[in-house]
Amino acid sequence: MRLTAGESVASKTSRDVLSRGLGVLRQAIREQPRIFAVAVVGSVLFGGMIIVSARVVGSVIGEVALPAIERGEVGAGTLALAATALFGISVLRVAGIFGRRLGAGYMQYRLQASYRRRVTRRYLELPLSWHHRNSTGTLLSNANSDVEAAWYPIAPLPFAVGTLVMLVGAIVSLFATDWALALVGLAVFPALFALNVVYSRRMAPRQARAQRLRAEVSGIAHESFDGALVVKTMGREAQETARFAGRAGELRDSLIAVGRLRGIFDPLLETLPSLGTLAVLVVGAFRLRQGAISVTELVSVAFLFTVLAFPVRAIGWVLAELPRSVAGWDRVRRVLDATGEMPYGQRVLDPAGAGPATLTFDDVHYSYPPAEAHPPGAQVLGEVGFTVPSGRTVALVGPTGAGKSTIASLAVRLVDPDSGTVLLDGVDVRELTSASLAGTVALVAQVPFIFDDTVRANIALDRPGVDDEVVWAALRLAEADGFVAALPNGLDTMVGERGTSLSGGQRQRLTLARALAGRPRLLVLDDATSAVDPRVEAAILAGLRSSTAQAGVPAASILVVAYRRATIALADEVIYVEQGRVIARGTHSELLATVPGYVDLVTAYEQAEVERAQESSYGDDVAPLPSGLEIEVDR
Amino acid sequence: MSATTETSDTQEAREETTWQTLRRGLALSPELRTGLAGTLALALVYMVGRVAVPVAVQQGIDRGLVGGLNLNVVWSVVAITAAILTITTICGYLMMRRLFTVSETALANVRTRAFRHVHDLSMLHQQSERRGSLVSRVTSDVDQITQFLQWGGVILLVNLGQLVVTTAVMLAYSWQLTLVVLAAFLPAVFVIRQLQRRLGTAYATVRQRTGTLLGAIGESVVGAPVIRAYGIAGRTERRLDEAIDRQRLAQQRAIRISIVGSSVGELAAGLALAGVVVLGVLLGVDGTLSIGQLTAFLFLVTLFIQPVQIATEVLNEAQNAIAGWRRVLDVLDVAPDVADPGEQGRQLPGGPLDIRFAGVRFAYPGGPPVLHDINLEIPAKSRVAVVGETGSGKTTFAKLLTRLMDPSAGAVLLSGVPLTDVRFDSLRSRVVMVPQDGFLFHATVGDNVRFARPELTDEQLSAAFTELGLSDWLEGLPAGLDTPVGERGEALSVGERQLVALARAYVADPDLLVLDEATSAVDPATEVRLQRTLDAVTRGRTTLAIAHRLSTAQAADEVIVVDRGRVVQRGPHDELVRDADSVYGLLYASWLEQTR
Question: Which CATH class name applies to A359-602?
Fold first, then answer.
């Protein structure tokens, strides 16, 4: 949004941007003072050598070449001295370049690395609710391009600082030479400086617009290719291409606008110092006639104007990058300053020998953090209370959107309740250490997440004590050992985006194995076998049920979100939720007898069968009831 | 993996020279040639401006300052030069304007063409590439070319010209001094060529490590719930830190090489200046060189070093841009293996469609056969369920039927017309598939539903939801049809996304509807309701449902059972379940066990 602001807004706030941009630069210098000093010393040396080289060239022409040509003879010593001086200046300039560019580069890269580290640390510390409020794309660019943009001006900064010093030196040196020539300098240098500033100021919003359009073009491409299946099967390639072409056309126009501006200013920036040199020739000729200056001085000043143009542009580069830098910095700071992390406590639950854990929800309320699809504060859960006793299996049943996944997230403390408590073995989960919590409970989510790594790493996650034997045991229990063994490199096969692609069911079974490998005392399954075939799922559940304590996997309490009757049947108790409230709890048969919503949900297939049977007994030619009406009756 | 990509990149580079890529690129975008001669002529005039000042200095000194002051001469030299500079500046502007307009226009066309081409590639091809790499064909690869043209390209063009024009002026003044300058720069050019190669590898390493870093950051963002639930923040931090540091070290290495490159150019310039002074004074003493010419030479040497100094950087940028261009061209060169017959193709006959699989076999490239010799006929207006275990090949049916892929052998025919002969516009408007993962675009619910038919009004969409029995669900949304669904629909639950996807297919009004586990994530009660309403609204059309829950099979007119790539049973549900030991019998027994 900020970038869509037009040029007028940009110039109105440009003073603000300038001062804030300088603030960012100050921050950079505070963090890397030594390396910055090295870079500036190098840059000043370089700039100083430019002035010195102009004087030396002047002297060589005026005091060596001119007398020699006039006299028709030259001393070898003088000539050698002139050559040595010119080459010596080059060597010193090289030293300056090394200091300046190495310092600036290292400073920029170090700052980038340091802030990438800080931003990603923050990602790991901030709660999931914060993650949900930000799109994946935003978080990726915060850690990547925003950090980069914040420190872009660092690369030309030492050069610009050195150039400022050099400009002052040049003016002083000009006044020391001749006041009339110095006045030419006083006219040309500020003009050059001003031209650079105007150029950067005009360029910044155009560049920002191009950058924004680039991101939008990329966004369309990402989305369109992600949805390629839908685009293809609905034959919308032409319309998608038109959508893409529209934005690509805007990008083209904005890049042409950038180019036109370059077309105006680049030749002007070259021509201005040339005109300065011409002015020096005219003024110098007058002063030469007056006897106020020598040829040496005239040539040296003319040369100075020629070599000065390039360094002055460094100031423009810094100024041009400032708006982007400030925008990037703001976004980085937003992450670093975000509050609301979920601190872990100090308590540790007795790990081994304690048997399966007890999970208790005590009057838990939860509302969505403000996000675009939900009105702020929409309540998801209210007055939720239940217990999963040690070693028991509890099924969580309810229609789509009832809040089951939220309960699962609360149980493993991915989010904290607004009020009420979630307790493990009687201890508030907020008092537990991260390690103790992760060692006690494991969640298998509805949508499996696979790291871009080997099968082994995906399951073991470098957790202590999870060796290949444990991994295989977990895979067996998750009914995943068969397909993993058949993979080209077994446990060493790369999976994830860059590896072998797995089917949805295979991914779910891998994440199940990941949970089991940690030997949790409470297992939370959030519809975690939805993509697994019924027969395979039955085998997994039977295994979980009978084998608690088998193959190195100790017995666990289980909270399972389920639709399937077989899964529910395995549970000792069923909790039925609707619209964020616990409507009923009891055994499956108790709920069947007393809760109509529950009956509708779990016997949907049977009812359908019965109705079908009735319909076919009426005969096939009887038209079905208008469907909408039927739904109304159902409800 | 990334390491291998890198080597294959360099191998490619050896297979096709820069020149060949440029020729291919120009052949594809002939508009790049538009007005090229004029642009080059303007560039040449622009470059004359660069040597105007040294020439003016020489003329001014020799004819106006030394050996008797003549202010009039100085005046006229300055006036003429100023006039020349004005003209060259304007030419510079015109040159850049033409260059940018032509190149940006051409590249925007390439970008759009590549985008369309990626969509035209088969599902198979799209899946074999990382999604991200396809995106970069139409984004960063093209960006690399345009950025090069805007910065490096102009610099390269102008500096090459500057090198030529400067050399010409130097030769006009003194061939001996020109030789000195060239002799001083020759070793530098050789060293810089070497360095440039190393710099290319160094930048490639930076790119590769940046890719790894982005992957690591992505995992820490997308995998946040897993990282938190498993308490593996420490492990993630270590991986991130390693990736961050490795990228930084690569960047530092690259800048070191780059600095050495420009230092070599700087030293060569010092050497050239020293040589010019020594020889120049000696020539002056001999009377073959004037003081003004010697002065002009010192100016010209500084003009000469600029191109050499920036050569390492610009040539690298050029190589990256060429590599980007090559990648774009390579994508455009992949012939779509599932091609639209276009104008020559046939329209599907009107009315309900029947389906025929004639000797269809299918195998993924290099993989084992997925389907063996399938022969099937499905009459029009029937509702068929395809069932089978994971990996049995049932989803392949849906992909072949919608021509997302072509069979390895045999043919799929709709109402007697082979699918390969059917025009895509006809096929896509008559045959619609609802995939399992109900991908939604970052827009509102309404916009997603009218994806295939943008002309539908809100009233018509609401009516469609009512017909599907989903009006209650729609009304429960915060803003009804105007509710945004978030990136990829992630603001909705998985089941809700499937509902929207179903509505989207429904309003597309197809004659053959293919459902690929389209309701796998909704609760049973909703599923059953949807099933029944779908039965009603699709009556009179042909429906093929890939079923995961056997409730779908029970409701179908006919069930096709697939096992290990073969059709092993077909018939109505009631008939098939009679054989309890058959594949279907066992599947159904397991289903009953699950749901009863």
Answer: alpha beta
